[in-house]
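Action item from last week, closing it out:
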Amino acid sequence: GGGAAVGVLLGGMITEWFSWRGTMLGTAALGVVLLVLVARAVPEQRNTDAVRQLDLLGVLSLTGGIVALVFGINEIEDHGWASARVVTGLTAAAALLALFLYDQARIARQPLVPLTVFRNRSVSAANLVAVCAWGALGTMFYFISMLFQAVLGYSPLETGAAYLPLALGIFTAARGVAGAVLRLGARPVLMTGLTLAALGMAWLAQAGPGTAYASGLFGPLLLLGLGEGMVLTATTTAATAGLPGHLAGLGSGLLNTTRQLGGAVGLVTLVSIATGLTNEAAARGEEFPQALMAGFSPAFLFSAAFLTVGLLVALAVPGRESGRSVPVASGRPAPAREPAPPVTAEARPRV
């Protein structure tokens, strides 16, 4: 979250002073630097007893299912719900995702996601919250950037600088609420963050071509930043709570996957809605900035609704004293215990 906000600022500077192509080259160079740093600084951790077998069927069915789902939703705006493209895409998504679940439960010796992990209520609730929250938070950079540049006429550099309250809020909240999560548990911090983010989205829905930055944009951006920072920290804690140490990586990876899934589905859904409403407004003869806001304002409100659904789901996150470890099958049977030796006469306690 914070990295994305800072990236928008740096991208605006590069685009303003050089070219938008420089943002692509800069991202590639940063990837090389990070690869070298990871290779040098991150210690190798390997479970020598684990079964090493790639769940290829799980990888292909999950990836194909998500791609088909996003494709089907994306085609609704142009072709309608009953079109062959949409029906085929959504049907394929349902079939592939069902195959993935069957593979995880019945076929895979070393499943990507042992389904028993969802017996942990904290893990299940945190991932559902992540899907809802990132359906909104994962799409906000697209709509806010379009608001700044296409509606308000900001330059790339001005757009990047305008994100500073968002970045500040994310960094401040993410660092500041860690102690509160330990003291109070993830649930109250998560609910507070979702509430702040929903209020920020609803406030942004009131923006328009004449909105001043200080009075109409600084406040909602700061609320969004604070909310996202709190949600980031609290969901990460809840998604790994009660898991055995060797499955902490699974819990973290699963959370990142559900965030990406929520962002992908949320973006394609909200862009379809916004595009349809913008086209209708343009057909009525509205000016371009007003026509855009006819689509963007409902998109911000739908984002607030996603966050509100996440707020309701967050009620299922266990309290601070409720996080108990739940046994999770890892795909490899536990070694059999040796029988205890018999108690000899010499070993019996004397009275």
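Closing note: Residues 55-109 form one domain.
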